[in-house]
Amino acid sequence: MPEWIVRDIYEPASPESDKQGNEDTPRDKLTLDQWSEEDQPREKLMRLGAEALSSAELLAILIRSGSTDSTAVDLMKQLLHDCGDSLAMLGKMSQQQLMSYKGIGEAKALSIIAACELGKRRQLSEMPERTDLSTAEKMYQHLWPIMRDLDVEEAHVVLMNQAFKHIKTIRLSHGGITETAVDVRVIMKEAVINNATIIALAHNHPSGKTHPSRDDDMLTMKVSEACKTMRIHFADHIIVTDGDYYSYREEGKL
């Protein structure tokens, strides 16, 4: 991490940085001996995630520097203390109230106000409802718009959570489907990256025939074995045609 970034959070600002509204400006080199790497918010955020940081540390990352008397972390601790350690109370503070603190100029005050507003909006917003793909019919309805106009075969993997709710649909191949054209390792990799516990394989038959080929059966077997090894539930392999589908699960072949 660049030294000046670390200084911003942990070292008191130089007198020059407090001028003209206490805004962020580059400063002379200052010692960091009194701070361990484990205590640095940006390092802590990268290593442990945002949930491991205190509210003061998260705010310190936003404002980047403190005053001549306080580090960014100490300044934010004082601010939160004056708000009764309540982020709700912090969100009610005006720009002028924030700027009354030594080390908080206009830019820092606006950064804090913007962060509080984003928190409010996130709380008010609703998570979009994930599509339910618990049956072959529902999977077909999800896949048909994607594959309806294709004149060549494409293979897709449908990733789901443990409640059969849709996470992501990823194209695996274009122009053919065999166990060599579709890399099973890619399917497993995508499932792990996206935290999917259930997957389904799907491909189209431009010919309109729903019956699976030998290559389809071979690929289904390969994916099924890989899922068993990775402890991922292989829900189905759907063959999509215009107006109809074939389900390995419904046909008792999974």
Strand content: 5-15%
Task: Identify low-pLDDT runs.
Answer: 1-7, 15-38
Distance linking N and C termini: 51 Å
What is the H/E order?
HHHHHHHHHEEHEHEE
The oligomeric state of the chains shown is single chain
What would a concise description of this structure say?
The chain has 254 residues and is α+β, with helices and mostly antiparallel strands.
Layout of strands and helices, then pairs:
Layout: H1 3-10, H2 19-22, H3 41-48, H4 55-63, H5 72-82, H6 87-90, H7 95-99, H8 106-124, H9 136-147, E1 154-160, E2 166-174, H10 184-193, E3 198-204, H11 214-230, E4 233-241, E5 244-247
Parallel strand pairs: 3-4
Antiparallel strand pairs: 1-2, 1-3, 4-5
Describe this structure in words.
Strand 3, helix 11 and strand 4 (233-241) form a beta-alpha-beta unit. It is built from eleven helices and five strands, in the order H-H-H-H-H-H-H-H-H-E-E-H-E-H-E-E. By secondary structure, it is of the alpha+beta class. It has a five-stranded mixed sheet, with helices on both faces.
